[in-house]
Structures are given as structure tokens and as C-alpha cells.
Design a protein that fits this description.
Helix 1 packs across helix 7. The protein has 14 helices and 13 strands.
Amino acid sequence: MKNNKPNVLVLGATGKVGAETIRILEKAGDVNVIAGVRSPHKAQHLKDQEIEVRHLDLDKQETLAPALKDIDRALLLTSYTVDMLMQSKAFLDEAKQANVKHIVHIGASGAPTNQVAHWAWHQFIEKYIEALGFSFTHLRPEAFMQNITGPGYRWLEGNTILNYAGSDPWSWIDCDDLALVVATTLREADKYSGQTIQLGYDGKTFDEIAQILTDTLGKPFHAEDRPRDEFLENTLASGADPAYMNCVYHQFKLNVEGKIPDAGATFDNFEAITGQKPMTWESLISKHRDELLQA
């Protein structure tokens, strides 16, 4: 890059959070955005916007060093497999060699329990980031609203929310809100260096979400308790990673038993970080009213 702006690598550039992060960073214009993509043919729209695209496959270590050349800051996020541990270590080792300064890592819930394995995996990654001496920001989002509404994978089938997690409230965050926090912490690395930020802003049960859908869309919705075994069978049949999905399955069992501490805890940091209010279930459903009515 010929200018003096920081070079920022965004992994998952064609996914929900990565794509929105890139859009926000490009609009802000104070960093050079580089999109890290596993499948470059899926990123033609980014090239058309004159965004630099680099091939980066976390399962192919030979792609890491070229993608990390001259990068100052990077977003690290991984797919939903136990390989996240290996992938993250390889990426971080190469990032250290490449003299990357700041890592923003998207982890998982910070609920105070050692009973959910994939949350612990993310915390081990956090500690490895720190051990290598990076400037860092650890982000710990709670449940994604899009897990229910979509687009793509979702727990909403027709007018029924499939509820595998019991009757206690969950803490929810909109994926676009997560992307805004990611973009802010990448842009203002010095300000947010050394921070672990918990992200969850609307505590609702599945029944409450169904009622909000009913009130907002004007047709009836309900949440239906479903067996945890069904979730596991369906996800494994779709090709999901068995190790990771067994972790989620165990988490759901703990949810049903009321053994996840502070599962519905919400935080008041979003406006201070971003300058705007976080998405609520009411505002999300209103925003996507037409798509949800047509689904």
C-alpha cells in the first residue's frame, strides 16, 4: 500500500459478519481493507468494488504467509469445527512472523462455566494471542439473532421456532451489530487494545421472541420445545463437525437444566463503543418484516 493507512485483513470476508465488517470499514475509509477468502471465485463482487482480495484457507498453511504480508491488524474468526484450535494457532504463528500488530478475535460466550467445551476452546485461543504478545481485542458475542431468523441456517420453520434450549432467557446480538463492534475495534486498535468485550443486548426467551414475531408481523408464531437429540441428528446429517456439534448439544442440555450461569445476561457497552443503540428483537423483526413475511 502506498498510503499511510493501516492494512487490515478481514477473514470470513464473504460471510455474515465479515462482509458487513468490510462494508463498514470501506465506508469509514481510514484503513486499507484486505479481504481474506477461502474461495476467491465467491469474492468477485469485492474485486468489482476495488477491494483487495487474498486467498486464505485456514486449513492450508501455505496460504497464510502470503495473505498476511504487510498486514498491520487482522480479524480472526474460524468455522464451527474443533479444527479452530489448529487453525487459530497456525494463523497466529504466521501473523507473528509477519509482524502483525493487533488481533481482533471473535470468540464465544463468557458465561462463567467450564462445562461448555467450545467456549473453552475460544478462551484457549485468547490466551495464545496474549502469549504471543499481540495487541488484542477479545470479543465474546452471545447468541446470534440470525440463528432464529436467518438468512441461511435458522431455527424458524414456518410459524414455529424450534426450541432446543429450554425456557430460560438467552442473551442475543444481531450479526450486523457484532460487525460494527469488530470494525470499530479494528479501526481504533489502540483504544481497545487489551480489552475483553462481552456482547449481548436483548435477553429474551424463545416464547418471548415468538410473541414479538406475532405482534410485529400480525400472524401467529409459537416456540416449540424439541428434543436435543433431534438437533444433534439433524446437524450431523447435514455434515456439521461432530466434535463441535456435540459441544452445542451438551450446551443445550445444560440450558434446559438451568445450569448455564447468567445465560440471559446483557451488557450496556454497545452505545459507548459504536455511538448507537444495539438492535432489539422488536427492531430486528421490524427491519426484516417483508423478508420474514415472505419466508
